[in-house]
Amino acid sequence: MKADKLYLIGFMGAGKTTVASAVGRRIGWRPEDIDSRIEAREHRTVAAIFAEDGESYFRRVERLVLHDLLPARNVVVAAGGGTFVDPENRALMLGDGAVAWLDVPLSAVLDRIPVDGRRPLAADRPQMEELYHHRRTAYAAAHVRIDAGRPVEEVIERLLDWIGY
Ligand code: S3P
User: Fold this and answer.
1) 8 Å CB contact between 144 and 1
2) What CATH code is carried by the domain that includes residue 52?
3) Which atom of ligand 1 is nearest to the CA of 135?
4) Mean pLDDT by groups of 10 residues along the chain of 165 residues
5) What is the whole-number distance in angstroms between the Cα of residue 82 and the centre of ligand 1?
6) Hey, whose CA ends up nearest to atom 10 of ligand 1?
7) Residue at 128 is within a domain
């Protein structure tokens, strides 16, 4: 897939941020992180936004940040776990760049995500598991699915291959 922008989507713990930085370094594209941009814009953490203003407020800011990034080219965007789940965001992203789903097994998510309060939607484990299964249908609309349960170097190679680098 030839593209000048790459979106990495998928569940919490899929490695979106790490892979975005690594891919950016390899091909000279700027890595961007939606969660970091939300935190910079709000001058507070994702956890604080959820706690103080709720998820729907967080989703509104997330949408604004996505819009801010639309003109950017030669960037690798690490989405938040919920960014692509919103149908409007999904359509925007699919029309704007190459969208890769980093698909990680639930067992890896459970290993990788600490219950440290930094990810509000991971605090309740049964609820997180439900979210994991529920979101797969939305994630499956990505242009490609990449098995992100394997070593990160392989994930990076697979992505570079796919976008023709
Ligand atoms: C969320 C995932 C988080 C962050 C927020 C909500 C989600 O991003 O955007 O806590 O809805 O899955 P990461 O996937 O980068 O952890």
Assistant:
1) yes
2) 3.40.50.300
3) 12
4) 92 97 97 98 98 98 98 98 98 98 96 88 94 98 97 96 92
5) 6
6) 119
7) no
